[in-house]
Amino acid sequence: MKRSLLIGCLAAAFSLPLTAHEGHDHGDEKAALPNLGNTPQRLADGTVFLPKTAQRQLAVRTAPVAAADAARAVELSGQVVIDPQRGGRVQAMLAGRIEAGPQGLPAVGSRVRKGQVLAWVVPAAGQLERADLAAQLAELQAARQLAEKRLARLRELADTVPGKEIEAAESELASLKGRVAALGHGVSGRDALVAPVAGVVAAANAVVGQVVDARDVVFEIVDPDGLQVEALAYEALATDEVVAATLAVGERSVELDFLGAARRLREQALPLQFGKRGAGLGLLLPLGQPVKIQVKLKSTAQGWPVPQRAVVRSPANVAMVWVKTSPERFTPKPVRSQPLDGSRVLVIDGLADGDRVVVDGATLISQIR
Predict the structure, then answer these.
(1) What is the set of domains in the chain, with CATH numbers?
(2) Residue (of 122, 99, 103) closest to 112 by Cα position
(3) Is 131 helix (H, G, I), strand (E, B) or coil?
(4) Could you tell me which residues come within 8 angstroms of residue 300 by beta carbon, excluding any fewer than 6 positions away?
C-alpha cells in the first residue's frame, strides 16, 4: 500500500510543469534582449531611442519651429535658356567648308568680342557651277579690258569727241569693274562668321574642314553675368500673382526676377521667363540644363517653415519629420508641406509651435531599426 502511494506521488510530480529556481532557467523560453543604454534602436511605438553620444556622432541638430505667414509658392520645371538680348547664335549663311579665323577656332569657354571673326565658310559649289562662273568672269574681264582701251582712245580724242561719249565709256567701264569684282568674290570669296555679342562661347560645333549647311548653328555665345530660366506652368496660374522665383544650385540659392509670361500656350503649358544679373551667374549652369524652381506668389499661407532636408519619407512613403520629444527620444510626425523657397518648405499641417524638429540628420534617424 505504501509502495503504490509512493509511485502515485512520483508520477504526479513528474506530470507537473517544471519551474526553475530563482536565478536559473532551463532554456525552454526565449531570452529577452537586454535594453542597451548606449545603442540606438527603434521602439515598438515607432519612436527612436538615440543616446547623446550617437546624436553627436550623427551630427543631429534640432531647432524649434513657430508658425508664421509666408508667401505661397509653387514648384515648376524649367530649363536654362539663352538671353535673347545679351546672348547670340552664329549660323552659317550658306553651305560650305569651315576654315579657321584669324585667331583660330575659339574653344568652348573662351571669351570673344563683339564683331570678332570666329571662322570662315568657303562656299561649296559644284564643278559645273564653278566652271560657269569662271567662264562668265573671263568674259567680263575681257570686256573690261576692251572698255579700258576704248576709254583711253576717247580721252586722247577729247577735243574732237563729244563729252557724252567719254562719260558713257567711263560708266560702262565702272559697271564692268563692279560686275567682275562681285563675280570674283562669288567664285573665291569667303563668308565670315562674326560674333554678334561679347561673351563666352557656350557651344562650338566647328572643326577645320568641316562641311556645314546653311542655317547650321556653328557657335553659341552666352552672357557670363546673366542667368535666364524658362519655366512651364501646366496648371492655371495667374501671371499677376507671380512675384519672383528661387533656383537651387547645389548648396546655393539664386533669387530670380520675374521677367514676363507668354500670351500663348506652348504644348498646353504657359512659358514663364525668369532672370538675374550678377557676376558669374551665367556660368553656373549650362544651356539646356533642366532645373526646378520655386515660384513665389503674392498670396500668403500660414505654417511652419523648416529646411527642406528636414522632411523625409516614411516606409509607407508618407512625408514626415522627426520631433525631439525628450533628450534621447525622437518621434515621427506625418506632415503636409508645400514649397517655400529653394532651401525651405512650409509645413501646413502636423506640427505645433515649440516642436523641436530635426533639421540635420533626419535621414540617418530614419535608417535606425
Answers:
(1) 48-70+301-366 (2.40.420.20), 74-83+223-300 (2.40.30), 89-221 (2.40.50.100)
(2) 103
(3) helix
(4) 69, 70, 71, 72
Residue 256 CB coordination number (10 Å): 24
First CA to last CA across the chain, in angstroms?
64
Question: Burial level of 323, CB count in 10 A (0-12/13-18/19+)?
Answer: buried
Overall residue count recorded for the chain in this entry: 369
H/E/C letters for each residue in 289-337? CEEEEEEEEEEEEEEEEEEHHHCEECCCCCEEEEEEEECCEEEEEECEE
Q: pLDDT (tens digit, 0 to 9) for every residue of the chain, 369 residues total?
A: 444 444 444 344 444 444 444 444 444 444 444 455 678 889 988 899 999 999 999 999 999 999 988 888 888 999 999 999 999 999 998 888 999 999 999 999 999 999 999 999 988 765 566 677 778 878 888 888 888 888 888 888 877 778 888 888 888 888 888 888 877 766 556 789 999 999 999 999 999 999 999 999 999 999 999 999 999 999 888 888 898 898 988 778 899 999 999 989 988 999 999 999 999 899 999 999 999 998 988 888 889 999 989 999 998 899 999 999 999 999 999 999 887 776 788 899 999 999 999 999 999 999 988
Neighbours of 294 (CB within 10 A): 24
